[in-house]
Write a structure and sequence with these properties.
InterPro entries: MATE_fam, MATE_MdtK, MdtK-like. GO terms for molecular function: antiporter activity; xenobiotic transmembrane transporter activity. This is Probable multidrug resistance protein NorM. Keywords: Antiport, Cell membrane, Ion transport, Membrane, Transmembrane, Transmembrane helix, Transport. By secondary structure, this protein is mainly alpha-helical. It has two domains: about 230 residues, no CATH class; about 210 residues, no CATH class. The protein is built from 19 helices and no strands. The radius of gyration is 22 Å and the shape is globular. The two termini are about 25 Å apart.
């Protein structure tokens, strides 16, 4: 069931909310490794290359839709914190329509252009047919993937992070079973892996809907909750689209770095890939803390508990900075050793590059921690402007850094683009949080509003909430 995050110790609430998501992310990583193993062992290296070659474009298109669902859930969390069940269900109705429409548009556009996309990406001729067979199935099932993510985000919006974990475990196990069934039992080749993913996501979506209908009364949308109020749709898209845009920005940046690494050679690609796997595993707690902060801030903003927002952000920043500093030290001294688990034969050149990767990035993981915590916190307030600005600056810094610095410093230059991007994103986020908290605490000056970077709407909403709290 849901958890009210407007009462109780902020840090304890945030950490307890994060733990199931962290477990789910770890489980998903191991599942991803198992999925890769199944394809490689049953179909061979060409099939594995075909599936792996479409990862960035899948992330780009699916990330847009999945990010949108996370943004839509922010409004749900705000209305849950406000204890306004009618408005909450109305938000669900509006969000469901947006999710369905976006899914249909993306499905049609992506499936009709799958071949063109693969050719544009210069997919090698020997794997392009397999890549197409896999990708077109994934694109055809966009609706199932997006719906599962939306329903999971809605449950998290009301403070329930455990139920999405259970459904994630179910869909992951089912996916592995279906992989073997379709690939070996029905001889469906790589398309079978695509069908396994889509069907498992569809079943998980159905289970989520059944659970919500049976167990979560507050999320049952009634006929009267469907609305034609275009202001509602505009407000939801104002929050949701920038979320999706940020996911796309990350994907574009990844593509830029991948292009740079490809030009540097196979050793650079192998070293970066191995190092990134270690980094992603150790930075998972930072990501889950960010999701928890978004829900915490949104609920407390809806409830008008502005002092708790400040307290929660301070606690979240403190704990993530300590953790980021710790993993920075660990990776600085043991990064090469950890990368060895992913480097076949212990290639000395690859491990040397991995060591350089961690030497460059380790001192800057605290910047990454700030990005992970502050951006979702600002989004939880309903401010979509600053995260968009931060995302654009992050993209520009990463692409410019990857393309320019690699010309002068090779592999080191490509790695430098990451801390550069984190710094570029952190600056507007810190400024916005500082001045936004001042706005929530007192009547702001014109200078405060100007420097708050897009928080004027937050101030107007906070004034409305203060009046409602006073009246009640």
């Amino acid at each position: 069931m849901g958890r009210d995050m407007t009462q109780g110790n902020p840090l304890k609430l945030i950490v307890l909310f994060s733990l199931p998501m962290l477990l789910g992310n770890v489980f998903q990583q191991f599942y991803s490794m198992a999925d890769t193993f199944i394809v490689s062992q049953t179909l061979g290296m060409d099939a594995l290359a075909a599936v792996g070659s479409v990862g960035s474009i899948m992330f780009l298109i699916l990330g847009l839709a999945i990010g949108l669902t996370a943004g839509l859930a922010v409004i749900t969390a705000q209305r849950f914190g406000k204890k306004d069940e009618k408005a909450l269900r109305q938000s669900l109705g509006v969000s469901l329509i947006i999710v369905i429409v976006i899914s249909i548009i993306l499905t049609i556009a992506a499936t009709l252009n799958t071949r063109n996309i693969l050719e544009l990406m210069q997919t090698p001729p020997e794997i392009i047919d397999d890549a197409y067979d896999y990708l077109v199935v994934i694109f055809a099932g966009i609706g199932a993937t997006v719906m599962f993510n939306y329903l999971s985000n809605v449950l998290r919006a009301i403070g329930d992070s455990r139920t999405p974990l259970l459904f994630l475990i179910v869909t992951s196990v089912l996916n592995i079973i279906l992989d073997y069934t379709f690939i070996l039992g029905f001889n469906m080749n790589v398309a079978g892996a695509g069908y396994a993913t889509v069907i498992s996501q569809l079943i998980a979506s159905i289970l989520c809907l059944i659970y919500i209908k049976k167990r979560v009364r507050i999320l049952r949308v009634r006929k009267s909750d469907w609305t034609k109020d275009w202001a509602e749709y505009k407000e939801h898209l104002r929050i949701g689209l920038p979320y999706g845009f940020q996911y796309s920005i990350i994907a574009i940046g990844s593509v830029a770095i991948q292009i740079t690494l490809n030009q540097l050679g196979a050793l650079s690609v192998a070293a970066y890939t191995a190092s990134l796997k270690i980094e992603q595993l150790l930075t998972m707690p930072l990501q889950t803390m960010g999701v928890a902060m978004s829900t915490y801030v949104a609920q407390n903003f809806g409830a008008g508990e502005f002092s708790r927002i400040k307290q929660g952000i301070k606690s979240g920043v403190a704990i993530t900075l300590v953790y980021a500093a710790s993993i920075g030290v660990i990776l600085l001294f043991f990064g090469r050793l950890l990368a060895g688990f992913f480097v076949e034969g212990g290639n000395a050149e690859v491990l040397a590059l991995s060591e350089r990767f961690f030497t460059i990035q380790s001192p800057f993981y605290m910047l990454l921690a700030l990005v992970f915590v502050l951006r979702p916190s600002i989004q939880g307030l309903g401010n979509s402007f600053v995260p968009t600005v931060a995302g654009v600056l992050e993209l520009v810094a990463r692409v410019t850094g990857a393309l320019v610095l690699s010309e002068y410093f090779g592999f080191s230059g490509a790695v430098m683009s990451n801390p550069l991007a984190w710094f570029a994103a952190t600056v507007p986020l810190i400024l916005s949080v500082y001045y936004t908290l001042k706005i929530l605490e007192k009547e702001p000056t014109k200078k405060d509003l100007m420097l708050s970077l897009g928080s004027k709407k937050v101030y107007q909403q906070s004034k409305t909430l203060r009046k409602e709290c006073t009246c009640s």
